């Protein structure tokens, strides 16, 4: 058996190794581990099911526990696991027991923490990746004095202990207590009286953005992160939440402007990088714009007989694009701050129909006399009606696309201005030429 | 004299009253005040110069001080001052002495606080308007125990005391001390050893956004607000800072989409409101679009002889608009997060020239064979060269306009997509038709 494991470790055949370990007793696994170096111990431990891992960890004596923790943090172990393909790694790394996870993360420098969070099996962009491990939890049975005493003499950042996790003997999160409450309370008050039990908390696998938005909306200084069994792992502090929201806004702004977000600051990104991020979308947009070429070709006869119609094409597409992008940006923002949800789609459509129609009437009435005077009244009528039609249509398209995007799991910001305006361009031209053909029938 | 003041108060001639008060002695002013009702006391006090106000306040006994504070908070007084025209009010209301201002704000409900901040003379959108008055300041001479004792038994929110202001006997801010430092320090440690003297602070008249961004960038839990003499007034807490930054982002997103920001959530705003916020900009944009009509008219002969040129007009303006909006959104965002400043304008231009040229070459090379095959090679060449020219030009325009906007004090977000694309439309058409005239000379 021992030989088998040696070989499997040698070959890095972690999948088979995991199956082998399933059939062994807790004691046998612990024995196997004690005979190996720290990196190998870590590999074996990490491949155990969660329940088994807890049992093994508890079976080990304190020295071996410390040794294992060292192994789990070692660069050799990280190198080994991080060279596995992403899928394999995600499949192999189950959730680490909370007590071990929290101890592993504590006191690590931030850059190592990112790698470690990956090793702990928390998915990319998850709350587990950004949580701050907090070395101090308050026992639910403590008094105010006992809790405060626990903090004395330690190097603790203000934002890490402004809110303290209160846990029971199994590390289950039972509530949070504010440092201010501990400080201002009367002597002898039990922590259980001071704590807030209806506390917000997220799982380590939850999306970072969801966690960050919760911090913002509930005005929290810190949000507890727990594992699937509700055991306390760490905190997401308000400064980290702000940073995530800021990154998120940057991504939205780039997408809204029609390009992929940059990973580094504008002035330090290479020119080639800038071009690449934008080029992808510009290509998509120019291919979509082929639609407009088709529409224009289709109405070429109409254009040839009334050349003045061409004169207004940029104004028609421009106005459609602008009205559409206004609607899209309102709805994208409303989605981002949770004011609108995909199920509100009919409400949004009905609003946008009315807003677009109002805008169209307003602008149409304004431009009609000018165009009628300079060209002739029929051209004026074509333009006025086109503006009404295109504003209404553009508002509907602009309002609906972000909602559909959210529904199908695409970032709604992608459907801001450039994409919307390119889509509205072609359909807007159809509206324009159709109206022209009817009104100018005698001239064609 | 007393009669004169009666009459001036009656007539609400605060300007003359202010001049009258300048000529009176401190004792005379205090005497005048003691003979009047609380609202009138408040008016007189509020019209005094700052130095005089401090003197008068100190001259009053404790009972009269309390009476005056009551008057300053009274609805009658607020009504009186708030009915004055804005300019008058701003001119009349000098900065309130810090000790009085802080005492006035404390314990007020949030809605009353907004009005009070206005009465205190802090301009709209200023830090003073959103600061939280903090009833507890720590004396620089205190020990850790004395400071903690001061907090005992009080109803204090966590975020209001996570960071505490340390002041001297004249209420001058000398530093801040973290609650965590007080809690974790050894017995008897003087506050002066625990406090951070190189602390960030803003004046009450500073822009809210500047203050909020400082909170974010320096990862603060609270930012002290001081008056012009550096006396402590209150704190801007991290949750308020987050809210301001969020509003600011919402404004930017709306402006980037080409409309004025809504004051209420999308679904609760009236349709008319939505239309009004967008209509203003849509009008500006359609008027600007008249430029494109002019350009098209100017090249009408060219269009009439080669009708196929009209076919590509939406693609030309669309691509220009998209490239411009990509550049604009990058630079607007970089400005918002302080990665780029107006003085970087030449760096930005040089980057955008290269990015735009690269994008143009890439797209131009891609579309040339298709157009050459379907139409003819000269049309293909016109389009390819136009795309190179228009991408380069659009990137420059999109990159530069937000910087100019910031320089002249306009929100750079205004120059995102719709405005940039409308401006690029007209100039892009000039590029298009000029290239066409040269290459297609034989066909015209």
Task: Describe, in plain words, how this protein is organized in 3D.
2 copies of one chain form a homodimer. Chain A starts with a helix and ends in a 5-residue tail after the last helix. With 444 residues, the first copy, chain A, is mainly α. Chain A is 66% helix and 6% strand. Chain A is elongated. In chain A, the strands form 2 sheets. In chain A, strands 1-2-3 form a 3-stranded mixed beta sheet. A 3-stranded mixed beta sheet of chain A has the order 4-5-6. The mean pLDDT of chain A is 84. Chain A has 25 helices and 6 strands. The first copy, chain A, has 3 domains: 2-94, no CATH class; 138-243, Roll (CBS-domain); 289-443, Tetracycline Repressor, domain 2 (Orthogonal Bundle), CATH 1.10.357. At the A-B interface, helix 13, helix 14, helix 17, helix 18 and helix 19 of A face helix 13, helix 14, helix 17, helix 18 and helix 19 of B.
Oligomer: homodimer
Silhouette of chain A:
elongated
CATH superfamily of the largest domain in chain A: SLC41 divalent cation transporters, integral membrane domain
Overall strand count of chain A: 6
Rg for CA atoms of chain A: 31 Å
Organism (chains A, B): Corynebacterium kalidii
Domain CBS (chains A, B): 131-193, 195-251
Transmembrane segments (chains A, B): 280-299, 355-375, 382-405, 417-440
Keywords (chains A, B): CBS domain, Cell membrane, Magnesium, Membrane, Metal-binding, Transmembrane, Transmembrane helix, Transport
């Amino acid at each position: 058996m021992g030989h088998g494991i040696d070989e499997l470790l040698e070959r890095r055949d972690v999948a088979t190794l995991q199956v082998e370990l399933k059939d062994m007793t807790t004691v046998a696994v612990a024995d196997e581990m004690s005979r190996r170096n720290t990196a190998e111990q870590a590999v074996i431990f990490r491949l155990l099911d969660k329940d088994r891992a807890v049992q093994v960890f508890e079976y080990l004596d304190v020295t071996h526990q410390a040794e294992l923790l060292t192994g789990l943090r070692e660069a050799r172990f990280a190198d080994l696991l991080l060279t596995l393909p992403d899928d394999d790694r995600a499949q192999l790394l189950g959730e680490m027991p909370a007590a071990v996870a929290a101890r592993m993360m504590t006191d690590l420098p931030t850059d190592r923490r990112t790698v470690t969070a990956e090793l702990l099996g928390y998915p990319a962009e998850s709350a587990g990746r950004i949580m701050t491990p907090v070395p101090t939890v308050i026992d639910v049975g403590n008094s105010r004095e006992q809790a405060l005493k626990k903090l004395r003499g330690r190097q603790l950042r203000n934002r890490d202990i402004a809110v303290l996790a209160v846990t029971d003997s199994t590390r289950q999160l039972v509530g949070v207590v504010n440092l201010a409450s501990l400080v201002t309370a009367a002597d002898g008050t039990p922590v259980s009286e001071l704590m807030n039990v209806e506390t917000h908390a997220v799982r380590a696998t939850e999306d970072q953005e969801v966690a960050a938005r919760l911090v913002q909306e509930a005005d929290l200084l810190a949000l507890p992160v727990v594992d699937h069994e509700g055991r306390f792992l760490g905190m997401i502090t308000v400064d980290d939440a702000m940073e995530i929201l800021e990154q998120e806004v940057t991504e939205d702004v780039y997408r809204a402007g029609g390009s992929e977000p940059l990973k580094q600051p504008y002035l330090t990104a290479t020119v080639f990088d800038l071009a690449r991020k934008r080029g992808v979308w510009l290509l998509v947009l120019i291919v979509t714009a082929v639609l407009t070429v088709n529409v224009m070709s289709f109405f070429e006869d109409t254009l040839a007989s009334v050349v003045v119609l061409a004169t207004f094409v940029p104004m028609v597409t421009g106005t459609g694009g602008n009205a559409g992008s206004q609607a899209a940006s309102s709805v994208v923002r409303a989605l981002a701050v949770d004011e609108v949800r995909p199920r509100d789609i009919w409400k949004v459509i009905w609003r946008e129909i009315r807003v677009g129609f109002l805008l169209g009437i307003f602008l149409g009435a304004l431009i009609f006399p000018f165009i009628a005077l300079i060209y002739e009244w029929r051209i004026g009528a074509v333009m006025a009606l086109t503006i009404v039609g295109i504003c209404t249509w553009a508002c509907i398209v602009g309002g609906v696309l972000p909602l559909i995007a959210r529904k199908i799991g695409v970032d709604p910001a992608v459907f801001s201005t450039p994409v919307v305006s390119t889509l509205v361009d072609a359909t807007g031209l159809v509206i324009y030429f159709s109206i022209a053909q009817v009104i100018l029938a005698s001239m064609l």
